[in-house]
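Check this.
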Amino acid sequence: MTPKRIIAVLTMLASATTAPQALGQSSPYPGNDPAELFGYEIDVRETDNKRIAERALRAVKRARETAEEVKMVFGANRFHFVALKHDSMDMVAPELAKRENDVSRLQAAIESSALFYTAMRSEGVAARDVIAAELADGESGLSSEKRVTIYLAP
């Protein structure tokens, strides 16, 4: 074996041993709660309230704009997951059918955001269940303190 080949083999071996350490540092430890790591609260409810269904309907109408907003969110202090029941979904379904592409964009934006993905994963929610989302500023008005409400299909 020539010296160049020996150096190439040693370089490949050295880079292969450091890669798992770097990858391991990029994800939270399995035992840690993601909410504690990112510093947000999570609230989950199931509802059949007409007022909530109306809010979900407004959020579905804004799905395209919300998808763009989600891409810019880098911090949140509260995630509120609202699972709509069938009666509420009946009110939202016609608009949801009209805006299928916008909702798909929103789902893709949410899934590609580490913050949103981690919050959803900690509650066992899949992006395909998301039908709409609302983003609101926190009490302080800081962009890092968004309050997020995510509406889920039954």
